[in-house]
TrEMBL record:
Top-level taxon of origin: Bacteria
Protein name in the entry: Transcriptional regulator, contains XRE-family HTH domain
Alphabetized PROSITE patterns for the sequence: HTH_CROC1
InterPro entries: Cro/C1-type_HTH, DUF5753, Lambda_DNA-bd_dom_sf
GO molecular function terms attached to this record: DNA binding
Organism, scientific name: Actinacidiphila yanglinensis
Length: 276
């Protein structure tokens, strides 16, 4: 079949779901439109799930099980996919992040993962385990993924990384004085790198702060854009330039309003003096 995308079921749980869906469809000789009619969705939707461009929902899995007569096979696959420490859309974001030419981050309350020390990250996940929000295994999954993401920044050529942190990120104590001292030192070191820009969005911005939730923007090698935004329980990946470009514009406005890198380092250094 011409121009048929090759699927790698080992690349992600979503890809495994899509490959299984395609295999059963092929065995029955159905087109994507024919399967879509049986599942009461479009053939385009079927194509997006098969190729991993759209994650399967619980309703989609139920419809697939009904169409194929597979009991709860697809529903169990979706359940396993969602039983992770990662929000929807984030695994795909990470796959794009590791090849991005430019990475733009805005974070509220916590230092962004790419800039976290291992001790700071462990304190966050450890607290989540204590609260029962995630399991110990999920915490280990988060830390392992974070280490991989940070390691991917050490490549040639290195990606340009722009990070704007709400002032709360550096003032919120995490893991005790020693952990925070090392984390603040890490931020200063990050700011000194030739391929990075670090800025603080001070509390004084008030309503002029462009975002209320964490935002991640990627410029890929072909100059296409990807955005990822999340709340406490949901994540959303966006590729359509109609939606991503306004976010990029808002990010540029935020950078103009935020402190300069020199003033940012000065603020962090002043705060650092109050830690061991």
């Amino acid at each position: 079949m011409v121009n048929r995308k090759k699927l790698d079921p080992d690349s992600s749980p979503e890809a495994a779901f899509g490959q299984h869906l395609r295999r059963l469809r092929d065995e029955r000789g159905w087109t994507q439109d024919e399967l879509g009619a049986r599942m009461r969705c479009t053939g385009t939707h079927i194509s997006a799930v098969e190729t991993g461009r759209r994650p399967p929902t619980g309703h989609f899995a139920l419809s697939a099980d009904t169409a194929f007569g597979t009991g709860d096979k697809f529903q169990r696959m979706v359940s396993a996919l969602k039983n992770t420490a990662l929000l929807e859309g984030f695994p795909e974001y990470v796959r794009q992040e590791v090849r991005a030419a430019e990475i733009r981050v805005f974070e509220v309350g916590l230092v962004p993962g790419l800039l976290q020390t291992p001790e700071y990250a462990a304190a966050i996940t450890g607290s989540a385990v204590s609260r029962g929000s995630i399991t110990k295994q999920q915490a280990e999954q988060r830390l392992a993924l974070l280490a991989e993401r940070q390691a991917s920044l050490i490549r040639t050529p290195a990606p340009l990384v722009y990070a704007v942190l709400d002032e709360s990120c550096i003032r919120r104590p995490v893991g005790g004085l020693g952990v925070m001292a090392a984390q603040l030192d890490r931020l200063v070191e990050f700011a000194e790198l030739p391929s990075t820009v670090l800025q603080i969005a001070p509390f004084s911005l008030g309503a002029r702060r462009a975002f209320d939730l964490p935002v991640y923007l990627l410029t890929l090698p072909d100059r296409s854009l990807v955005s990822y935004a999340e709340s406490a329980h949901r994540g959303h990946l966006e590729r359509e330039s109609t939606f991503v470009l306004p976010m990029l514009t808002a990010y540029h406005h935020l950078q103009v309003e935020a402190l300069s890198q020199a003033d940012t380092v000065a603020m962090i250094s002043t705060l650092r003096k109050g830690t061991p």
